[in-house]
Amino acid sequence: MKKFFLIIFLFSCLYGWSDDFKTSFFTGYSFAKTKSYESYDFFTFMVDFTKPIKKSKKFFFQIEPVISYVSSPSDNFEIGVSFFALYRFSEGTFQPYIKIGTGIIYLSTDFIEQSTHFNFATSLGLGLTFNLKRFSIYTEGRLRHVSNAGIKQPNEGINSKILLIGIGYTF
User: What's the predicted TM-score (pTM) here?
Assistant: First the structure.
């Protein structure tokens, strides 16, 4: 199972370097409350590979490998990859956007509400991009729901709030 995640993570990273992709690096803080733990906190690092959908200036596809360090309730990690559809509301220097996506994630933490470490993560994000010449600066807030899609019970899900900052570069 670990090899599967590593292969998907590496493939996602390599796929991002093809033509027309913009690469962005994000880091941030995330938190949730669960039945298992009063505080589930993690620090995340992700890379977004963004490509326009059919030369659109408003609709984009993203591949996002992610790795997170879980600091509370104990030292653990998360690793996964998600696929997003992104819509930019404007084309100027300031670009508000909304994105929605889903992917696979491995949580090393044991939870009462989740019977599996292998899960699916669905996210909704709102953000703002500030564009310079070849660089961009991002701020984003996300809601993320993690569950195993009913593969095994219990499957109550874990809802997290994620705050992100990032920098992007067009190659």
Answer: 0.86
